[in-house]
Amino acid sequence: MVATCYLLGVSTRRMDKLVQSLGITGLSRSQVSEMSKDLDAQVTAFRTRPLDAGPYTFCAADALTMKVREAGRVVNAVVLVATGVNADGHREILGVQVTTAETGPAWLTFFQDLVARGLNGVKLVTSDAHAGLVAAIGATLPGATWQRCRTHYAANLMSACPKTSWPAVKAMLHSVYDQPTAKDVQAQFDKLLDAAVDKLPDVAEHLDAARADVLAFTAFPKDLWRQIWSNNPNERLNREIRRRTDVVGIFPDRASVIRLVGAVLAEQHDEWAEGRRYLGLELLAKARITIVPGDEEVTDPHLALTA
């Protein structure tokens, strides 16, 4: 019961009152230690489990910052999280890891672990434009395309745009995503570039440099676009993590971060497994078909193995 309250984000003060209402005067250190060991074992098993439900056609990666006490100081610790859509169309928590900072080597180690545990068949990874993250994707997932999150990109573009011009640029950028076909998306993006190139050269340069990565989603069926063109689904997951961790405030150590965040993610993973499919099987099958020169369709071998 105490462990459940902990995972639900019940504050320490409220938990203490609840325990007292049940006639328990307090919990000894040994009792708390035993509960922690049990939870740690469950989280470790979850974090190190084989990723054997692939191919994981679509993945997403993100990072959150937590406050942790180390050597008498309060420092930042970064939680790396990856999610994916498995062969059955359900979302999974693929991995979670705590590191000192969001760096290239940290992301590389993270993805290497995912691959070692069985991550395969990845066609697209959606994330922000952190250089180390993008490099790690390229180094560990050959053949996977990177989708630059449209929400993060809009924020990046806004920083390069004069404040008075941003409403018009934002509206035109949104109109790109509203198009019905990949060809129309590209054509509307051209119109955006043409509109910006003379009056807003910095904006036009920014857009042109990001084009391939921002529009990577167009290589897949339109019915999938909303699920893959941004990290918004992961942002909702991040908000749930924040809701549970805000009651802690400053964690006593990194192990406690893994304990709580890992348990919250394991719970979410189970809910996804028991809920409706995130993506339909027919859509996933279409997404795994590669078009080669001569208009010959080649079905991904991972799909054939799971048929």
Automatic annotation (TrEMBL):
Keywords: DNA recombination, DNA-binding, Transposable element, Transposition. It comes from the Bacteria. InterPro entries: Transposase_mutator. Pfam families: Transposase_mut. GO terms for biological process: DNA transposition. PROSITE patterns: TRANSPOSASE_MUTATOR (PS01007). NCBIfam families: transpos_IS256. Belongs to the transposase mutator family. Required for the transposition of the insertion element. This is Mutator family transposase. It comes from Cellulomonas gelida. The lineage of its organism: Bacteria, Bacillati, Actinomycetota, Actinomycetes, Micrococcales.
